[in-house]
Amino acid sequence: MLAKFIVRAIFGALGLWLAAKLVPGVRFDDTATLILAAVLLGIVNAFVRPVVFILTLPLTVLTLGLFLLVVNAAMIGLVAVLLGGFHVDGLVAGVLAAIVTGAVSWIGGLILQDGKR
């Protein structure tokens, strides 16, 4: 279980690093901050995101799931607020970072399939 969290944190760090390279308005101060941001994003996604998802479920259904991009951007923004060396400038940067990070995490999940399908 801990190994799975560590691997997910590595893919999260890779996604945040790629987002910082591709998305203007997303940046981090150093590598330690990037790793800490990835771990914190994993924790936020495990505990805060499910609550926000349930609270925004009607809006998510109404927008055919597109509102989940805003929810994911809000989780990245929350990490940026909690962590001083990680910066996200605005909603557009957050949404684009959520797309990049989500795509990298999805690819990581495909690579690390554990035979549940």
Account of the 3D structure:
With 117 residues, the protein is mainly α. The chain has one domain. The protein contains 6 helices and 2 strands. A two-stranded antiparallel ribbon has the order 1-2. The two termini are 19 Å apart. The model has no long low-confidence stretch (mean pLDDT 93).
Give the class from helix and strand content and strand pairing: mainly alpha
Count of DSSP E strands? 2
Q: How many H/I helices?
A: 6
Q: What order do the SSEs take from the amino end to the carboxyl end, as H and E? A: HEHHHHEH
Which oligomerization state do the chains in this entry correspond to? Answer: single chain
What is the radius of gyration computed over CA atoms, rounded to a whole number of angstroms?
14 Å
Order of strands across the main sheet: 1-2
Q: Which stretches are low in confidence, meaning pLDDT under 50 for 5 or more residues running?
A: none
Mean pLDDT score: 93
Strand content: 5-15%
Termini gap: 19 Å
- In helices, the fraction of residues equals over 70%
- For the record, the count of structural domains works out to 1
| Biggest sheet details | 2 strands, antiparallel
Gross geometry: globular
Structure described in brief:
The chain has 117 residues and is mostly helical. It has helices at 2-22, 31-47, 49-55, 57-62, 67-82, 91-111, and strands at 26-28, 86-88. Helix content is 75%, strand content 5%.
